[in-house]
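Customer escalation, tier 2.

The customer says the design service returned an amino acid string that "doesn't look like it belongs to this structure." They asked us to rerun it and document both sides in this ticket. The original structure tokens are below, unchanged.
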């Protein structure tokens, strides 16, 4: 059915499927490495604050949505209360909040429309890759609902093969994006970052053969690091094929026959150079089946924990890190370009980092690939943040799915060493059970990386005036590396309290101080106790770093945060203006004093850990 021919009926009968995760196909590995067309650019939009696109006046769902038809008037008496062709456009990838002043605080539904002229070769499969749509997406093709996806920071794929014919024809692609916050969501309805809505990452149309290489994993065998273990999974009718994995530069290759599920396992000798922090070595890797071929760039390294040490390639490392939000430098907002990703990572490198915590959700794929190329270790996390609805099975399903999508997408990146399942979650049996199950998912999908979470430490004032910090969270037992967020000097006392802290090891695992920090407005000076001044922030960093130097089981830190970022929780006029000011850089990249304090500390640590 062409959109133009659709009658303007508001049919009200059956409901849209209740499930929020339907229709999409298993993720295609390395979408960028496949033949594709980029569907970014100007998409026409209808802003729909009352959700008229999918419900009638009695709050009953529409069988097929009003806007999804992308209809046009054909007779002069037609009643059509929208018109995509005459509507304004928003840029994809991007969020709506930072593109239009009147949408700055908008949370709700926006319908995006893009026309595509497509023909399909026989035996070709067409898959739409959405890098991310925050937070819920419904994808309609020529008016038909093809897929729904929930989770605003991970990719999903929608197959349109059966909807495209041999002749070139115009098709209508409509995406409903909704970013209404909810208590049962992941993240929940309360968080300290901007809920940027929209098609926030690139949209691509992948052209794949009838049976294609859907996924693969190519990594050093942690048990026998002179070998690479690989698996390849095919998708399509010809699941029985010979597949080959090769690293031409090393003259290494292996081939194997797929099993009945289209999966083959292979081993290759590895006599190359390892990928190492700040010394990244990537190899061209060819993954080939009889009907498809993909090329990727992959690094090889090991990562493990030995007592309180984190070992990369068998060498103890100290994680000199910084936390980063996915917010565009200089302009704010999402839809970062590869240059903007790199800018953030270059600033981290200038700070002396060998490690970044990509908070509080999976960042875009190009960001992780840039870290891989720059030799920055990565902590990657899902937005299981603060008080989720631990008892709600749908909340668990969403967290679990986002974790799977993150691991599926990034499992071939040597840079990624830590998967984090949560940030600052209130301890209860239901929460610990929920998060423990997530650690099990992560380990089952990827037994080669370390599992972590950012938790709180218990602290107690002692009669001698000191404050003892120890991790008593039962989740720690299920983690390889324990992350702790600690805000003494900002939310808890003044910076001079930091000197009273003593850490006690209760878990025998590496500790990473995943956050500490203080707000400062760039350019605001005062004495070291003037809140919001650069001086206060610098003083707090000095005190924290002096204290942390003496923690024998500390193996890294990622202070909060590289750059100021937007947050609706931060309304203080003249200082915050909806920016969380804990950045070491302003949103324009201007260095605050504390940048230099941390930079000097990292220079020292880099010398000591050589
Ligand atoms: C935290 C959170 C982080 C906040 C930060 C703050 O503990 O993990 O998301 O932005 O504190 O600035 O309060």
């Amino acid at each position: 059915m062409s959109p133009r021919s659709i009658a303007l009926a508001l049919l009200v009968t059956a409901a849209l499927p209740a499930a929020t995760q339907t229709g999409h196909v298993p993720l295609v590995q390395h979408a960028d490495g496949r033949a594709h067309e980029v569907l970014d650019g100007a998409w026409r939009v209808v802003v729909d604050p009352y959700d008229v696109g999918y419900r009638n006046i009695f709050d009953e769902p529409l069988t097929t949505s009003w806007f999804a038809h992308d209809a046009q008037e054909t007779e002069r008496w037609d009643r059509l209360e929208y018109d995509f062709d005459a509507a304004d456009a928003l840029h994809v990838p991007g969020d709506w909040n930072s593109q239009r002043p009147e949408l700055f605080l908008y949370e709700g539904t926006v319908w995006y429309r893009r026309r595509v002229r497509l023909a399909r070769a026989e035996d070709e499969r067409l898959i739409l890759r959405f890098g991310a749509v925050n937070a819920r997406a419904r994808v309609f093709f020529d008016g038909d609902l093809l897929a729904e996806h929930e989770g605003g920071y991970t990719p999903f794929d929608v197959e349109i093969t059966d909807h495209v014919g041999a002749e070139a024809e115009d098709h209508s692609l409509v995406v409903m994006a909704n970013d209404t916050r909810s208590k049962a969501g992941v993240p929940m309805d309360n968080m300290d970052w901007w809920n940027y809505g929209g098609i926030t990452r690139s949209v691509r149309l992948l052209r794949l053969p009838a049976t294609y290489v859907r996924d693969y994993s190519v990594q050093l065998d942690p048990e026998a690091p002179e070998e690479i273990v690989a698996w390849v999974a095919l998708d399509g009718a010809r699941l029985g094929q010979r597949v080959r994995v090769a690293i031409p530069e090393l003259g290494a290759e292996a081939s194997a026959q797929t099993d009945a599920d289209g999966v083959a396992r292979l081993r290759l000798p590895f006599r190359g150079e390892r990928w190492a922090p700040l010394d990244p070595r990537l190899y061209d890797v060819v993954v080939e089946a009889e009907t498809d071929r993909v090329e990727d760039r992959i690094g090889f390294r090991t990562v493990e924990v030995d007592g309180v040490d984190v070992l990369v390639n068998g060498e103890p490392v100290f994680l000199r890190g910084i936390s980063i939000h996915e917010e565009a430098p200089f302009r704010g907002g999402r839809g970062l370009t590869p240059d903007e990703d790199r800018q953030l990572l270059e600033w981290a490198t200038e700070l002396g980092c060998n490690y970044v915590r990509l908070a509080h959700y999976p960042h875009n794929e190009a960001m992780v690939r840039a870290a891989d190329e720059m030799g920055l270790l990565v902590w990657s996390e899902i937005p299981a943040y603060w008080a989720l609805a631990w008892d709600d099975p749908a909340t668990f399903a969403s967290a679990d799915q986002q974790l799977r999508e993150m691991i599926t997408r990034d499992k071939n990146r040597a840079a990624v060493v830590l998967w984090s399942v949560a940030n600052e979650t209130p301890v209860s049996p239901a929460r610990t059970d929920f998060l423990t199950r997530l650690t099990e998912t992560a380990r089952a999908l990827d037994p080669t990386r370390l599992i972590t979470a950012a938790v709180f430490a218990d602290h107690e004032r002692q009669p001698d005036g000191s404050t003892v910090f120890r991790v008593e969270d039962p989740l720690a037992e299920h983690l390889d590396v324990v992350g702790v967020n600690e805000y003494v000097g900002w939310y808890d006392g003044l910076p001079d309290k930091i000197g009273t802290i003593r850490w006690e090891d209760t878990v025998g695992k590496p500790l990473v101080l995943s956050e500490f920090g203080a707000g400062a407005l760039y350019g605001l000076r005062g004495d070291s106790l003037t809140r919001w001044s650069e001086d206060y922030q610098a003083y707090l960093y000095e005190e924290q770093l002096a204290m942390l130097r003496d923690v024998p089981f500390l193996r890294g830190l990622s202070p909060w945060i590289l750059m100021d970022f937007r947050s609706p929780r931060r309304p203080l006029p003249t200082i915050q203006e909806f920016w969380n000011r804990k950045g070491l850089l302003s949103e324009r990249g201007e260095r605050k004093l504390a940048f230099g304090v941390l930079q000097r500390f990292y220079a020292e640590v880099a010398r000591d850990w050589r």
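Tier 2 assessment: The sequence is consistent with the input. Residues 192, 360, 423-424, 485, 515, 560, 580, 582 surround GCB (CB under 6 Å). The radius of gyration is 25 Å. Sent an explanation to the customer and offered a walkthrough call.
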